[in-house]
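Let's practice the habit of predicting before peeking. Look at the sequence and jot down your guess about where helices and strands might fall. Then scroll down.
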Amino acid sequence: MIGGGLAGITAALDCSAAGARVTLVEVRRRLGGAAYSFERDGLQMDNGQHVFLRSCLAYRALLERLDSSRTVWVQPRLEIPVLKPGAKRVLLRRGALPAPLHLAGSLARYPYLSLRQRMSAARAALALARLDPAEAALDDVRFGDWLKDHGQGADAVAALWDLIALPTLNLRAAEASLALGAFVFANGLLSGADAGDIGFHSATLSQTIGEPAARELSRAGVQVRLGWRAERLERSAAGLHVHGRGGTSAGALGGQDGGEESDEDGGRGPSREGEVLDADAAIVAVGHTRAGALLEPLLGSSARRLDGLGSSPIVNLHVVYDRVVCDERFAAGVGTPVQYVFDRTAAGGAPSGGQYLAVSLSGAEREMKMSVDALRERYLPALSELFPRARDATVERFLATREHAATFRAAPGVSALRPGAETPVAGLVLAGAFTDTGWPATLEGAVLSGHAAAIQALAELGVEPGAGFTGAPAAPGPRLAGTGAQ
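Done guessing? Here is the structure:
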């Protein structure tokens, strides 16, 4: 049934475990959707630095299901090294007190805010904890406006609030929805003392998600069609027809191909004649920018509403030095264009003695328009300001990867535009991080959407989800088809 991203993988496994015969089609020649890796000049690179929180229970459960939990690690206690040019390293670290007091010690000592600003930030955090993210009116308010009304000036927002807003919402607080901002802080930092402990991928995303998913889907009996583009959906007498074409055949689940990709360059290779897949139900798990066009023939104007979700870009810089210049596994930047930097030397296979740093830039509309030379000119000096040893180091490689529609735009009004899994068309179900999961566009949101879509599809087929989530069915069940990242 479903596409090749986290939502599709999750839903396919759920439906297969419940007894459905599942076909998964994916336009790219790999699984993983928006979380993928590629090889460039012998270096293994992730398209982006995807982190998660201890509170991301659904994503962590999927990793267990894929037998890839060993390729990730979660901090024993939240620690964010914060670097500022010309200043000493600062550590934001949770203490032993229960939430929301677990961060009080770090906030009280945070040197990038004055004493008055720290006290004001503490009051704002307590007020934020009292908000109900599900209250519809909050989605009409800018998070930045709410912070301003609660005594948070531009300096405080840049030095503190954006450290969390940017990587989770893919927007600065000034532009983001208060509802989503409140959700992130409530669930990620204030719901429990350990909720915000950060999880990292020690291996590449392909090793953590794509390759293990291929093995598990094969074991579960899911038929996977890689390099297969879904082009049109239409109703049939018994369910739905999925029209498409592709260059590879069923079950090609071996290696993951490398290379920087966009949503439109999958499915390369010899083209086949058009093909039709018949299904009793279809789960569409493409990104929202593609989903609208694919769904419009069946859903009409409601499909066009997906355009209103907008998009927010992410740019990642990949910098290889000839020596070690940074002692941090990851760090946040304040007073610098560097937002977050990660040491990916081990996972990427950097040359012995060298170091591979990945710089993650969220809400990167400006950087999307910059050439690689312009990015190099701006960010190499910025990295040297944070890491003085970089001044004498040789930059052996500098690459940029860009995701122009990395996430939907988490701006005010977006919640009303996010669809649920159910559609007016019988058997047609939606999945993806853009659907109404309550979460912003995250790994957790994508997995939750896959579970919701599977439950909805199985319910429409009269199948009980909890009856057989242990493996492939003993006898052929209803057929489900899906479309992967397009």
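How did you do? DSSP finds 14 helices and 20 strands in the chain.
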